[in-house]
From TrEMBL:
Domain Metallo-beta-lactamase: 24-229
Domain of life: Bacteria
Span of the signal peptide: none
Top class in the EC scheme: hydrolase
Protein name: Hydroxyacylglutathione hydrolase
Gene3D superfamilies: Ribonuclease Z/Hydroxyacylglutathione hydrolase-like
Keyword Hydrolase among record annotations: yes
Organism: endosymbiont of Bathymodiolus septemdierum str. Myojin knoll
EC number of the protein: 3.1.2.6
Length: 319
């Protein structure tokens, strides 16, 4: 096991929540002038890692002011209900469309079990605990909060999910991006830089909204993206272009199999070939079996999300 956390600069710490494997799901701790905030929490089973990081860094639980949730997918927010029990002064910030689902997580739980199955839920996500309503604050577009002496700003960022927000950190010129600035595993880094692709997770993937969101975020001229999957990367226009290219690439694959039998299986196979091809062009030297292992979880979820999107667009177009 890697160490649970490592310090970046600007008072930011990346915590490996140990969900599924090392270096897969990050949560972040931001410290400023004696106050602290978590950005995302990992799942329910990740909470001991977050609390251990506070202890290791000598931060009192009373000094944590915020849990900021980029969105309510359980690898990002599933631990918030458990974590808030340990943080007497913290408030949970979330997009208005996500709030009801964390106050009463029964629908969220059912939806997740439908996608992942009961066994996966228990084994890898653990549980899902409601968050008391009085602990929740709606994060509105362009609202700013103060942590110590730094300003954090919420930005509505639909595309991966309608209820997704990003958090702009003026101090580091970075964006806490949840899933909006893509997935990029450090195992695929080469001298060409980072390989970034879109998690087209069910059930609200919206490619047009996502591309508009990227335009909006690039106006901030960020230096960094703090990705949940995984860790901080430098984020440039080239990174944004790569993500847009692969959003389009994934959509093209989905549309190609729209009316086929075994659509899900075919999309999944085609996505794998697509990812292996872009990894090869990117100069990735891992052998294919290792790459398949690293892409495996994303393939299933991305193919499901594309399937939902196909069905939704079919309805939208009234065909
Ligand atoms: Zn997500």
């Amino acid at each position: 096991m890697n160490s649970i956390y490592h310090d970046l600069d600007f008072g930011i710490t990346c915590i490996d929540t140990q969900h599924m494997r090392d270096n897969f799901v990050a949560a972040y701790l931001i410290e400023d002038n004696g106050r602290a905030a978590f950005v995302d929490t990992g799942c329910h089973l990740s909470v001991p890692m977050l609390l251990a990081t506070l202890v290791a860094k000598n931060i009192q639980v009373e000094n944590v002011d915020y849990i900021l949730l980029t969105h309510i997918h359980l690898d990002h927010a599933g631990g918030a209900g458990e974590l808030i029990k340990h943080l007497p002064n913290a408030k949970v910030y979330v997009h208005e469309y996500g709030a009801n689902h964390i106050i009463d997580p029964s629908k969220l739980r059912a939806g997740v079990i439908k996608v992942y199955g009961e066994l996966f839920f228990k084994q890898f996500l653990g549980d899902l605990i409601p968050i008391p309503k009085d602990k929740i604050v709606i994060a509105k577009d362009n609202d700013e909060i103060i942590l110590g002496k730094r300003v954090l700003k919420f930005i509505n960022t639909p595309g991966h999910a309608r209820h997704h927000i990003c958090i702009w950190d003026e101090k580091s010129q970075g964006i806490f991006s949840g899933d909006t600035l893509g997935v990029s595993y450090r195992e695929f880094d080469t001298d060409q830089g980072e390989l970034i692709f879109p998690p087209t997770t069910p059930i609200q993937f919206d490619p047009d909204a996502w591309k508009n969101t990227l335009k909006k975020l690039m106006q901030y001229q960020p230096k960094y993206a703090y990705l949940t999957h995984f860790n901080r990367i430098e984020f440039t226009q080239k990174s944004a272009n790569m993500l847009i290219e692969h959003i389009d690439g994934f959509v093209t694959i989905a549309e190609q199999f729209q009316n086929e039998k075994n659509r899900h299986k075919k999309i999944k196979e085609s996505l794998l070939n697509y990812l292996l091809e872009i990894a090869s062009k990117h100069g990735v030297s891992l052998d294919e079996a290792q790459q398949v292992k690293l892409f495996k979880g994303d393939l299933e979820i991305c193919a499901q999300g594309l399937g939902v999107w196909l069905d939704d667009s079919y309805l939208r177009k009234g065909l």
